[in-house]
Design brief:
It contains 11 helices and 9 strands. The protein has helices at about 5-35, 40-60, 65-90, 120-135, 165-180, 200-210, 220-235, 235-250, 270-285, 295-315, 325-334; strands spanning about 110, 115, 155, 160, 190, 215-220, 255-260, 285-290, 315-320. The strands form 3 sheets. Strands 6-7-8-5-9 form a 5-stranded parallel sheet, sandwiched between helices. Strands 1-2 form a two-stranded antiparallel sheet. About 25% of the residues are buried. Bound molecules: zinc ion.
Length: about 325
């Protein structure tokens, strides 16, 4: 997996905060113990001077040091057991003042034998999802909350099933797709009228794929294409820079979700940027999910044959059916 530098730095910061909090807690416990038992402070001093003596032996060459080593080891064990006893007299476990860590695998360093430790990956994913969450509207998009009862139960002759049955299968298909996601998975085109849950479904997929540790970008088409425009035309260097970062992310992330294609202002520049986005990602075998209210004919009319034929030929098209969920919800509330 390729890490986003900014998010990885934030995840490492979180890990550092954990380390500092643990170190502070360890110091607090030591002071607490020393206050109640000055003997433990003495023992710790002796243990430290033993450690220094031991290091002295390790670097002194020549001469037989085995007798000295054996003596230090005996004394060390005696001191350790006395320390444990003192702590137990205070009603505390023997390891009460030991170094604390949240992750026993990497001891909160974030490094494990295979490279990045799982705990740092988890922190990274949390940052990733937080970033994504800012773009998701309500924050409760997940497959479990998909409500089939919002879709009609009457059989649609054209479908041979009810919208409710059909959309339940759609939910299961998308959930399976999200769980089995790997870079290079099929690109999807969500089609169907306004308010049929296309955005909800793509947000559900984004959440699952991001939680699995893949890089996901999620944006409305109008906002995404505006970044291309800022990158190219903005006179504000900082804004152009930030836009360029976003565009790089759009082009290179494992999963790009482009919401609401067809609601943006169409200009020759935006069409060219859209083509660049779609074509680059297809060429580099990166997965994209696009949702749109438009049909193929309208797509062709608005964006031209190049874009329409890419979408028609190389995306897996999923049709959403039913009535506008927002209207259904309103009727229920009435
Ligand atoms: Zn760890």
């Amino acid at each position: 997996m390729e890490y986003n530098g900014k998010l990885l730095a934030r995840a490492r910061e979180r890990l550092e905060q954990r380390r500092q909090a643990n170190a502070a807690e360890q110091r607090r416990r030591l002071e607490q113990v020393y206050a109640r038992s000055p003997r433990v402070r003495e023992i710790d001093r002796e243990l430290r001077s033993q450690m220094i003596a031991l290091m002295g032996l390790a670097i002194s060459h020549g001469g037989d040091v085995s007798a000295d080593l054996a003596r230090l080891e005996r004394e060390n064990l005696l001191l350790q057991s006395e320390r444990a006893e003192r702590l137990s007299e205070l009603g505390l476990p023997a390891d009460y003042t030991d170094e604390l860590c949240d992750c026993p695998v990497c001891r909160d360093t974030g490094l494990a034998s295979g490279g990045v430790c799982e705990c740092l990956k988890k922190l990274y994913n949390r940052e990733l999802t937080a970033e994504l969450g800012a773009l998701l509207r309500t924050g409760d998009e997940c497959f479990e909350r998909f409500d089939p009862s919002l879709y009609g139960a009457e059989i649609d002759p054209a479908l041979g099933a009810s919208a409710r049955e059909y959309m339940t299968v759609m939910r299961d298909t998308c959930a399976e797709y999200a769980r089995g996601f790997a870079p290079g998975a099929d690109s999807l085109l969500f089609m169907g009228g306004t308010g049929l849950g296309k955005t909800f479904m793509s947000a559900c997929i984004a959440r699952v794929v991001a939680a699995a540790g893949f890089s996901v970008a999620y944006d409305s088409t109008s906002s995404a294409l505006a970044r291309f425009e800022q990158q190219r035309f903005s006179r504000d260097a900082a804004e152009a820079d930030a836009a360029a970062g976003r565009v790089r992310n759009y082009l290179s992330c494992d999963l790009m979700i482009l919401d609401d294609l067809g609601t943006e202002m169409t200009t020759s520049f935006s069409v060219a940027a859209l083509y660049q986005l779609i074509n680059t990602r297809l060429t580099e075998r990166r997965t994209t999910i696009i949702s749109t209210n438009l049909g193929f004919e309208e797509l062709r009319r608005r964006y031209g044959g190049q874009i329409a034929s890419r979408l028609e030929g190389e995306y897996t098209c999923l049709h959403f059916y039913g009535r506008d969920i927002r209207l259904v919800k309103k009727e229920r509330e009435a």
